[in-house]
Design brief:
By secondary structure, this protein is mainly α. It is 85% helix and 0% strand. It has one domain.
Length: 155
């Protein structure tokens, strides 16, 4: 027996707080760069920055499908693993893990900006980070699937 959607959505409030915290950190990075960027930049050699930027782009591109696969695995484990944790607790862990793994993408932009790159690189990584936050946001259907699987297991 599942809860009405409005009650289930209320159970996802902590999950949305995790996403909001991730979004606030992204906004914070960008504000720091806009307000104090000139004072914080190190002005590394262009060739060094190009190499580091290329590596970070590659890591970010690989990170997206990896996190998506990990999320899929975690969702299935949430439905099948025995234990006393509730559906909400299990799904919260999934959201925390996926949002935490997407967080470095925003930090890549901050790092490159601090090393001397311009706002363009910061915006590209920030947009990728924002996309990751959106792709891995809490979804009521996933939560209800976990709740349903756990209730079927217990009955």
């Amino acid at each position: 027996m599942s809860l009405p959607p409005e009650l289930s959505a209320a159970k996802l409030r902590p999950h949305w707080f995790v996403c909001a915290a991730t979004l606030l950190s992204l906004v914070g990075y960008n504000l720091v760069c806009h307000l104090w960027g000139g004072e914080l930049q190190l002005e590394w050699d262009e060739q060094q920055r190009v190499l580091i930027r290329s590596i970070l782009y590659g890591v970010a591109i690989v990170l997206f499908p990896f996190v998506n696969l990990l999320r899929h695995i975690l969702l299935r484990l949430n439905q099948t693993m025995p234990g006393a944790k509730t559906a909400s607790q299990r799904y919260l862990l999934t959201i925390i893990v996926t949002q935490s793994l997407i967080e470095p993408v925003g930090l890549f932009g901050l790092t490159m900006f601090l090393l001397g790159d311009g706002f363009n690189t910061l915006y590209i990584f920030s947009t990728m980070h924002l996309l990751g936050i959106f792709l891995h946001k809490p979804k009521l259907s996933e939560y209800l699937a976990i709740e349903s699987a756990l209730s079927n297991e217990n009955s």
